[in-house]
Design a protein that fits this description.
By secondary structure, the protein is an alpha+beta fold. The protein has eight helices and 16 strands.
């Protein structure tokens, strides 16, 4: 069974006081700081003195705790004499009551309490204002002694019992004093379901987050699945590319067969087609380009004509020409040179019937 150790924070003139709750009853009580059992699971709840915490009740936004605290801080700023930046504001809830309790305490005081508890080896699960250990009365006020101090609780009020203050707040109505049994029952209920815990915001209890190994394993399997699918997609793409390349190579081979000599085996289609093209067109710039350049030069030279053509496999062409004078021979050489060919006369041109005849050797530069 998990026990709860209730620690009443000491005032300047009061010692530590404590209660040990087991189940639904107060099992032990005492003064001074108690011995902490190392082998028994115990939750710790600290009780803040009533005179150190100011309590208010107000209707607050209920959408989120942050909105509620913001609205509560605005109310506390209007009701407090000190700067709101020096105050810690916490918001709670009492069952189905519309008005919500607001606790206001000095931030330095809150830090001092937590440091004092830490020095004694305690990190409390909650810090409760002393007046909220008393039940909320339907009407009037209740009074009880808690940790050596008197505490008064009203419908929407809670404060330390001081003669003049109590009479002023209650309007002279005497609070009803709770019996010991009723008080212990109220404490057990308040600790089990606190209506206002001051450990909020900057003073919230830090909890260690356990590693969710099941989630880690799921994420690991998911990552492995993603990597596997990615790898599978890559492999499929490579197979598709390889198949497409093989198909393209087959089509190239079939096309090459149509351009090669019948019966010739295809080993390197590009090289074999280039070689056949060279054989068909001849060396140099080929028969067609060389012949075209020669006839273009003859047409551009009036009075010249071609008698014979002889094309050698090395790309050289012998052209027998007839011209009217030697100047036309130079014109033919110049025009063929402009087309990228060297034209060299072979021997002397002979004069026959008033015209000059001879051979020109035409080859690429």
């Amino acid at each position: 069974m998990t026990e709860t150790l209730v620690l009443f924070l000491p005032a300047p003139d009061l010692p530590w006081r404590w209660l040990r709750i087991a189940g639904d009853t107060v099992a032990a009580r005492g003064e001074g700081f108690p011995l902490l059992a190392a082998d028994t699971p115990v939750s710790h709840v600290a009780i803040a003195p009533a005179d150190a915490v100011t309590l208010h009740w107000a209707e607050l936004p209920d959408r989120s705790l942050a909105q509620s605290v913001t609205a509560a801080r605005m109310l506390a700023a209007d009701a407090s004499a000190g700067p709101i930046g020096d105050l810690h504001v916490a918001v709670g809830r009492e069952g189905e009551v519309v008005e919500r309790p607001i606790g206001v305490v000095a931030a330095l005081q809150m830090r001092a309490w937590l440091d004092l508890l830490a020095e004694n080896g305690v990190d409390p699960d909650a810090v409760l204002p002393a007046p909220l250990l008393l039940p909320r009365p339907e009407t009037g006020y209740l009074r009880a002694d808690l940790g050596g101090e008197g505490v008064v609780r009203g419908v929407t009020s809670g404060f330390a019992d001081e003669a003049r203050l109590t009479e002023l707040v209650t309007g002279g109505v005497a609070p009803v004093v709770l019996s010991r049994d009723a008080l212990e029952t109220a404490i057990v209920a308040a600790v089990a379901a606190p209506s206002l815990d001051l450990r909020q915001g900057a003073f919230a209890r830090k909890t260690r987050r356990a590693v969710d190994w099941a989630l880690v394993r799921r994420l690991g399997w998911l990552s492995a699945a993603i990597l596997g699918v990615t790898l599978l997609i890559t492999i499929v793409q490579l197979i598709k590319y390889s198949t497409a390349a093989d198909d393209l190579e087959r089509r190239t081979e079939l096309l090459a067969r149509t351009g090669l000599a019948r019966g010739e085996a295809v080993s390197d289609a590009d090289r074999q087609l280039t070689a056949r093209l060279d054989r068909l067109r001849g060396g140099g710039q080929g028969f067609s380009r060389t012949t075209a350049a020669v006839f273009a030069a003859i047409r551009a030279t009036p009075g010249s004509e071609a008698h014979t053509l002889a094309f050698d496999p090395n790309g050289t062409m012998r052209v027998g020409v007839g011209v009217q004078n030697e100047g036309q021979i130079l014109d033919l050489q110049r025009r063929l040179g402009a087309s990228g060919f060297d034209a060299t006369p072979q021997g002397q041109f002979q004069s026959v019937n008033g015209r000059l005849s001879g051979d020109l050797t035409v080859k690429p530069r």
